Amino acid sequence: MISPARRLLIAICLAACFAMPAMAAGTFAARADVRAFVDEMVERHGFDRDALLAAFARIQPLPAVIKAIRPPADPGIRSWQAYRGRFVEPRRIAAGLRFWDEHSGDLLSASARYGVPEEVIVAIIGVETIYGRSTGRFGTLAALATLAFDYPPRAELFRRELEALLLLARDAGRDPLGYRGSYAGALGLPQFLPSSVRQWAVDFDGDGQVELTRSPGDAIGSVAHFLQAHGWQPGEPVTAPVELEPGSNPQPLIDEGIRPVRLPAEMRPLGVRTDAAAARPAALIDLVTPDAPTEYWLGYQNFFVITRYNKSSFYAMAVYQLAEALRTAR
């Protein structure tokens, strides 16, 4: 017979063994900052503390995520033509046309409901993941935890996204360890961050759940809803090319940013030549390529809306030009 003292010792050892995963060296659960975050999630959202610690006990920091998100040590000079060549190219155009054909019904419905042109929806999904071919290989919980706790420059943003992922998983009845995506935590065909999934993703295929990886319909509807919610203006232009008067200095206009605040007529005294309608506010966009003339464009409200998806004028123009190439080819 086992003595009471020995029984107590066995019980203590078993308890320690079961507690070890939450404190295992190298896992996130062993860290004081993560445990403090867990306490906040328990207090603010009513999470089960032990369940969260058990999840964090199963992940470790991912050095590849930090390497991927850090700016290059030698960034060089940005090139619009090099950037454009990655996205507006035959392979992506051909894949986009196939995607459009395969999902024409969802695209037509989403365009009608949200007022966003079909080609723009197709172009965004093409730029983001080549129509689902490249949605990311990282465990999302581990990627976001790595950025939230080991990347100080953007820790606040990624702590919010980590919080959103846990809420998203709970709302969907899913294991937070089951999500996979980009090194920055973006998910599915449209590469929505968890907070964007919670706020703007829609069950467009009507099956009772939002699934951005396996449901092209949900991805299509969610992209269109995102753009509408950020101010897309149906039937209005996205951008228009302009030229500069010789010797003019466009820098003051460029420094005003990409939010459309000036009428084109107000830009003409500063050397911007355009026949664009004077009734639409715009921003002056510069697309720089080393050893080539800089391209100048007007960015209207719809151009600005695309930059809400990715805050880059290169990105917005690549989406626009891929959309135009797809529309023309179709």
UniProtKB/TrEMBL annotation:
GO biological process: peptidoglycan catabolic process
Signal peptide: 1-24
Keyword terms, alphabetized: Signal
InterPro entries for this protein: Lysozyme-like_dom_sf, Lytic_transglycosylase_MltB, MltB-like, SLT_2
Highest taxon above the source species: Bacteria
GO molecular function term, any single one: peptidoglycan lytic transglycosylase activity
Sequence ranges assigned to domain Transglycosylase SLT in this UniProt record: 31-324
Pfam families associated with the record: SLT_2
Active-site feature positions: E128
UniProt xrefs under NCBIfam families: MltB
UniProt-recorded name of the protein: Membrane-bound lytic murein transglycosylase B
